[in-house]
Amino acid sequence: MLNGDARPGGDEWTCSIVALNPDTVSSAGAFSASPHDTHDWDAVETPVLVDADFHGQPRKMLMQSSRNGYFFVLDRTNGKSLLTVPYGPANWALGIDKQGGQFQTLTRNQNPMAG
């Protein structure tokens, strides 16, 4: 377990997928797959880029399953979550907000599991 006490908060750029505007090289959005990661669950799986309809609208998407036990579908133009669902047992998160991007996480003393 990594000590997260030295970096309070969500740790926005840790374990994140970042959307960059190629013309300005500025951030177009970001999604933190494992906020305040204290268990080295950074994603090592290759993101898949898909251009397809999602809920009836054409979208440019990024899809990725993560070591933390969740599968993500993001709008790759702005980094917003379109879908966040567990693909196996995962008890490190107590829940996900309606936008699919903010996890309610366990306390440090509990024994989290993913995958």
Question: Would you write up a description of this structure?
Answer:
The structure is a single chain. With 115 residues, the chain is an all-beta fold. The chain is 0% helix and 42% strand. It is built from no helices and eight strands. It has strands spanning 16-21, 26-32, 48-54, 57-65, 70-75, 81-86, 93-96, 103-105. The radius of gyration is 14 Å and the shape is globular. The two termini are 17 Å apart.
Kindly report how far apart the N and C termini lie: 17 Å
Low-confidence stretches: none
Largest sheet: 4 strands, antiparallel
Percent range for β-strand residues? 35-45%
How helical, in percent, are the residues? under 10%
- Count of beta strands: 8
* Dominant shape: globular
Strand order of the largest sheet: 3-4-5-6
Q: C-alpha Rg, in Å? A: 14 Å
Q: What is the residue-mean pLDDT, rounded to a whole number?
A: 78
Identify the quaternary structure here: single chain
